[in-house]
Design brief:
This protein is an alpha/beta fold and about 250 residues long. The chain has one domain: Glutaconate Coenzyme A-transferase (3-Layer(aba) Sandwich), CATH 3.40.1080. The chain has helices at about 10, 35-40, 60-65, 80-90, 100-110, 125-130, 195-200, 235-240; strands spanning about 20-25, 45-50, 70-75, 95, 115-120, 135, 140-145, 150-155, 155-165, 165-180, 185, 200-210, 230-235. Helix 5 packs across helix 7 (about 195-200).
């Protein structure tokens, strides 16, 4: 039952070339930077990543992206990541952009063993009808486009069928965890982390604080340990390293 491993490098040592990864985080909040760094050092590429976005400010998944290690991204937001946009438009990267709520539910459904579900999000658009550019040809044309999806009507309303997502591995970050893999996420860092963790066949969590079994209030646990296979304990320096994407001040 003790799922703690000695290092991040050991935790990702069996991630192979071409693996699929669900990765938690939103912007710079709740990103498993230490595990991503260990995966970068490992040198594997051809990765298929499922995450809300693909890193920001040259951190998180942006490290793997800049190194050419990512082949495909399923996500909702490109944002200010200029390298992400450049690779996509140049035809170097395949990108499946989907509504944010749909992404969240596809991850949750995959983890819950639900193969597919119907949602109204995207009905009447290319999300349902197909034709969204997944990969450009580098010359302005579309090399690969999204296929049409099944649409059905329930009680007079149309819904599009979306598939649940399962990945080979999941990388997440939690504020607290125990040796059994039960996790508590800090405030907004909860974002996509529980959902990504559910979707991975092998889920690795980096935790800022490790407690012994029984040290977490059961009612406070956000993700039960059944979804987590490996726990990496961060150093105090790693736990405190939290960057800010945008600073705002009041006059």
């Amino acid at each position: 039952m003790d799922k703690v491993v000695a290092s991040a490098a050991e935790a990702v040592a069996d991630v192979p070339e071409g693996a699929s990864l669900a990765v938690g985080g939103f912007g710079l909040s709740g990103v498993p930077d230490v595990l991503i760094g260990a995966l970068y050092e490992r040198g594997v590429g051809g990765l298929s990543v499922v995450s809300n976005n693909c890193g920001a400010l040259e951190s998180g998944l942006a490290v793997l992206l800049a190194a050419g290690r990512i082949a495909r991204v399923t996500g909702s937001y490109i944002g200010a990541n200029k390298e992400f946009a450049r690779q996509y438009l140049a035809g170097e990267l395949e990108v499946e952009l989907i509504p944010q709520g749909t992404l969240a539910e596809r991850l949750r459904a995959g983890g819950a063993g639900i193969p597919a579900f119907y949602t109204p999000a995207g009905v009447g658009t290319q999300v349902a009808g197909g034709g969204l550019p997944w990969r450009y040809d580098g010359a302005g044309g579309v090399a690969v486009a999204s296929p049409p999806k099944e649409v059905r009507e329930f009680d007079g309303t149309s819904y599009v069928l979306e598939r649940g997502i399962r990945t080979d591995f999941a990388l997440v970050r939690a504020a607290r965890g125990d040796r059994h893999g039960n996790l508590v996420f800090g405030k907004s860092a909860r974002n996509f982390n529980p959902l990504a963790a559910m979707a991975g066949r092998v889920t690795v969590a980096e935790v800022e604080e490790l407690v012994e079994p029984g040290g977490l209030d059961p009612d406070a646990v956000h993700l039960p340990g059944i979804f987590v296979q490996r726990v990496v304990v961060l150093t105090p320096e790693q736990a405190a390293d939290k960057r800010i994407e945008r600073r705002t001040v009041s006059g």
